[in-house]
Amino acid sequence: MMSDLPRAASKWQGRASCLVLSIHNHYYGETDVFQEQQPGSLALTRAMGGPAPPEPAVPAVSSAWGGCVEVDSETEAVYGMTFKILCISCKRRSETNAETFTEWTFRQKGTEEFVKILRYENEVLQLEEDERFEGRVVWNGSRGTKDLQDLSIFITNVTYNHSGDYECHVYRLLFFENYEHNTSVVKKIHLEVVDKANRDMASIVSEIMMYVLIVVLTIWLVAEMVYCYKKIAAATEAAAQENASEYLAITSESKENCTGVQVAE
């Protein structure tokens, strides 16, 4: 009975090894044939023509959607310079497929009607015949896609005739699983043309705050230096007085000792 225990243990160990390797083959596509040669031992024979084990799996990288932020356009252009008029219209859900086209209209300062100056659709810029914008308008929005979200334009060599109100009309067709939906948005920009660029109020305020902060910090630093100097001077004077008191005490004690010695003699 005792002699059969090692053999039984070896047999169960072999079956356990067979089970582990079978699970391994199930996930890695290997076909292995096990043959028992003698009690307590196993021999592994790979079947010819079995599929090769696959390469280690590389975790897939999920695609990322670019963010879209709607920013207001600048409203002051300098005469003779190039100016960019921003028109950004973001989708509420970036993963929704869409097709977009835009039309720009312009109402010159002192007039009442808007006139169309361009249309951009299917990556084609169609300019209207207008002497004020002839050879001056350049597309600066989204490229390589029908799903436009940046619909900005450049105006080169700006003149006073470009002062006025601009409207960026955005027409978007959204594709859902069972239906399509049309949306339209109008972005309005008022443009003024000036001879010289005026400083932004934010930059003026920030510069003033910078100088005020420098003055305050300088005054605080000088006050700290004066305070530290007075404190050090007071500590030095107190130490000098304490040393002088100790010296006088030692001198008087020495004189008393000398007097006592003379009296004793």
Automatic annotation (TrEMBL):
<dbReference type="InterPro" id="IPR036179">
    <property type="entry name" value="Ig-like_dom_sf"/>
</dbReference>
<dbReference type="GO" id="GO:0044325">
    <property type="term" value="F:transmembrane transporter binding"/>
</dbReference>
<keyword id="KW-0739">Sodium transport</keyword>
<comment type="function">
    <text>Regulatory subunit of multiple voltage-gated sodium (Nav) channels directly mediating the depolarization of excitable membranes. Navs, also called VGSCs (voltage-gated sodium channels) or VDSCs (voltage-dependent sodium channels), operate by switching between closed and open conformations depending on the voltage difference across the membrane. In the open conformation they allow Na(+) ions to selectively pass through the pore, along their electrochemical gradient.</text>
</comment>
<dbReference type="GO" id="GO:0019871">
    <property type="term" value="F:sodium channel inhibitor activity"/>
</dbReference>
<keyword id="KW-0325">Glycoprotein</keyword>
<keyword id="KW-0393">Immunoglobulin domain</keyword>
<dbReference type="GO" id="GO:0086002">
    <property type="term" value="P:cardiac muscle cell action potential involved in contraction"/>
</dbReference>
<dbReference type="GO" id="GO:0001518">
    <property type="term" value="C:voltage-gated sodium channel complex"/>
</dbReference>
<keyword id="KW-1015">Disulfide bond</keyword>
<keyword id="KW-1133">Transmembrane helix</keyword>
<keyword id="KW-0732">Signal</keyword>
<keyword id="KW-0966">Cell projection</keyword>
<protein>
    <recommendedName>
        <fullName>Sodium channel regulatory subunit beta-1</fullName>
    </recommendedName>
</protein>
<keyword id="KW-0813">Transport</keyword>
<comment type="similarity">
    <text>Belongs to the sodium channel auxiliary subunit SCN1B (TC 8.A.17) family.</text>
</comment>
<dbReference type="Pfam" id="PF07686">
    <property type="entry name" value="V-set"/>
</dbReference>
<feature type="domain" description="Ig-like">
    <location>
        <begin position="59"/>
        <end position="170"/>
    </location>
</feature>
<keyword id="KW-0406">Ion transport</keyword>
<keyword id="KW-0812">Transmembrane</keyword>
<dbReference type="GO" id="GO:0002028">
    <property type="term" value="P:regulation of sodium ion transport"/>
</dbReference>
<dbReference type="GO" id="GO:0006814">
    <property type="term" value="P:sodium ion transport"/>
</dbReference>
<dbReference type="InterPro" id="IPR013783">
    <property type="entry name" value="Ig-like_fold"/>
</dbReference>
<dbReference type="InterPro" id="IPR007110">
    <property type="entry name" value="Ig-like_dom"/>
</dbReference>
<keyword id="KW-1003">Cell membrane</keyword>
<dbReference type="InterPro" id="IPR027098">
    <property type="entry name" value="Na_channel_b1/b3"/>
</dbReference>
<dbReference type="GO" id="GO:0043204">
    <property type="term" value="C:perikaryon"/>
</dbReference>
<keyword id="KW-0472">Membrane</keyword>
<dbReference type="GO" id="GO:0030424">
    <property type="term" value="C:axon"/>
</dbReference>
<dbReference type="GO" id="GO:0086091">
    <property type="term" value="P:regulation of heart rate by cardiac conduction"/>
</dbReference>
<feature type="transmembrane region" description="Helical">
    <location>
        <begin position="208"/>
        <end position="229"/>
    </location>
</feature>
<keyword id="KW-0915">Sodium</keyword>
<dbReference type="InterPro" id="IPR013106">
    <property type="entry name" value="Ig_V-set"/>
</dbReference>
